[in-house]
Design brief:
This protein is mainly α. It has helices spanning about 10-20, 25-30, 40-50, 75-95, 100-115, 120-130, 150-155, 160-170, 190-205; strands at about 180, 185. Helix content is about 55%, strand content about 0%.
Length: about 220
């Protein structure tokens, strides 16, 4: 759905954010994507409001409390009115970036954005990194969430967790020789290590009789 927007970076970034927060392809196909035309976005807003439930997906937690006292107190207003006004500033920060890491970019992006949506923006920056690795480098220091932090501190108690993940990313295939895909060695990024740290922590908790058991049919 977003592939046709590849030639307009600001438009692509805006709709990556839109798609991440809606997190439901059926809704996006029904409402259409955002543009920089106010009238068109008002129409998207109306279709989004009228869309039957379930309207939003649940893969990404959005703290609704962060916008309740703002001029954009609903998710629909944030997306259709606020996002188009702020996204160009965020896009400009990324255009100037040359292989900067997510941990370095995130504070600047959040300042331009105006809300503390660090988790959501981290996911959007990952999306941009896969499309434009020359702008965002996932092998550099990466934000370490609370799920992965205990693992990183277990590996290096006296080192910032973000630096630990970045150091692991520099180890290369030699340190993990069994990792391969289609016969080619896999070089794990700091983002990959953040996820591995989170998964390891889940199993450590289960070993202690703690945490939530995740059962799959």
């Amino acid at each position: 759905m977003l592939a046709p927007l590849a030639g307009d970076f600001s438009l692509l970034l805006m709709n990556l954010f839109f798609a991440r927060l809606v997190a439901r392809p059926e809704t996006l196909r029904s409402t259409g994507l955002l543009s920089f035309d106010v009238k068109e976005n008002e129409e998207v807003h109306e279709r989004l409001l009228a869309h039957p439930r379930p309207k939003y997906g649940v893969p990404y937690v959005f703290p609704i409390s962060t916008i309740l006292n703002s001029r954009y107190p609903t998710r629909e207003k944030l997306l259709c009115a606020y996002l188009p006004n702020r996204i160009r500033d965020c896009a400009e920060i990324l255009r100037r970036s040359e292989h900067r890491g997510v941990a370095e970019l995130l504070p600047e992006i959040l300042s331009a954005w105006g809300f503390n949506h660090s988790f959501l923006w981290t996911e959007v920056l990952i999306d941009i990194a896969y499309q434009h690795p020359e702008l965002v480098d996932l092998y550099k220091p990466f934000p370490i969430g609370p799920g992965s932090r205990p693992t990183m501190l277990r590996l290096a108690p006296d080192r910032p967790p973000e630096e630990t993940a970045a150091a692991l990313a520099q180890e290369g295939h030699e340190a993990m020789p069994l990792l391969s895909f289609n016969g080619k060695p896999v070089h794990l990024s700091a983002e990959n290590w953040e996820g591995i740290g989170c998964e390891y922590r889940k199993y450590v908790n289960l070993q202690k009789g703690e945490g939530r058991k995740r059962r799959f049919a």
